[in-house]
Amino acid sequence: MRVGIVTFPGSNCDHDVYHVVKHACGADARYVWHKDRLPEKLDAVVVPGGFSYGDYLRCGALARFSPVMEDVAAFANAGGPVLGICNGFQILCEAGLLPGVLMRNASLKFICRDVTLKVDGQETPVTRGLVGRTLTMPVAHAEGNYFADAETLDRLEGEGRVVFRYVGGAPNGAARDIAGIAAGPRRNVVGLMPHPERAAEAILGRDDGKRLFESLLAA
């Protein structure tokens, strides 16, 4: 299993994802610099968290123009599994691979704490065997307030593409307590604001997040 981890100027969770994929899960992980093309024969792509391009203009708005994103889009459109975490979720929305937008938190404050998620909707490459379960992992963001128009939200709900939902209410004001969604021909593009890579080993206090990576690798 070969997983490409896309790295932008300002990414700061790429090493965490690499560690989980390679050392916690035992798969082949490789960094992909934003100016390069995706390597051939990748089985999955992860767009990690951080502050790509310093979040200038708008979070994810500049990263979506990086050369590698053309390949990420082609990979996704061909059915390849793509996971966007936090800033990666923002980038995938800006690139049009996921609908909606991530706005400033309703509190206008940076949020960094554990949250409980319900795995919802239809199965995706990262939620195989997990639908209906609750998982705990941290969020760390200032722009995690998911927004889309009512028609889009209804369509996401109706198609089972709201795949993560905050339990007890969204800490950031996200519409319908949405923490993560899916798109693509096989619901193969998934974005979520919480950080599974920061809750993927027992030494960190919990390993709920590892289940998402194990699902991705099994897919």
TrEMBL record:
<dbReference type="InterPro" id="IPR029062">
    <property type="entry name" value="Class_I_gatase-like"/>
</dbReference>
<feature type="active site">
    <location>
        <position position="195"/>
    </location>
</feature>
<comment type="pathway">
    <text>Purine metabolism; IMP biosynthesis via de novo pathway; 5-amino-1-(5-phospho-D-ribosyl)imidazole from N(2)-formyl-N(1)-(5-phospho-D-ribosyl)glycinamide: step 1/2.</text>
</comment>
<keyword id="KW-0436">Ligase</keyword>
<keyword id="KW-0963">Cytoplasm</keyword>
<protein>
    <recommendedName>
        <fullName>Phosphoribosylformylglycinamidine synthase subunit PurQ</fullName>
        <ecNumber>6.3.5.3</ecNumber>
        <ecNumber>3.5.1.2</ecNumber>
    </recommendedName>
</protein>
<keyword id="KW-0315">Glutamine amidotransferase</keyword>
<feature type="active site" description="Nucleophile">
    <location>
        <position position="86"/>
    </location>
</feature>
<keyword id="KW-0658">Purine biosynthesis</keyword>
<keyword id="KW-0378">Hydrolase</keyword>
<feature type="active site">
    <location>
        <position position="197"/>
    </location>
</feature>
<comment type="subunit">
    <text>Part of the FGAM synthase complex composed of 1 PurL, 1 PurQ and 2 PurS subunits.</text>
</comment>
<keyword id="KW-0067">ATP-binding</keyword>
<dbReference type="Pfam" id="PF13507">
    <property type="entry name" value="GATase_5"/>
</dbReference>
<keyword id="KW-0547">Nucleotide-binding</keyword>
<comment type="function">
    <text>Part of the phosphoribosylformylglycinamidine synthase complex involved in the purines biosynthetic pathway. Catalyzes the ATP-dependent conversion of formylglycinamide ribonucleotide (FGAR) and glutamine to yield formylglycinamidine ribonucleotide (FGAM) and glutamate. The FGAM synthase complex is composed of three subunits. PurQ produces an ammonia molecule by converting glutamine to glutamate. PurL transfers the ammonia molecule to FGAR to form FGAM in an ATP-dependent manner.</text>
</comment>
<dbReference type="InterPro" id="IPR010075">
    <property type="entry name" value="PRibForGlyAmidine_synth_PurQ"/>
</dbReference>
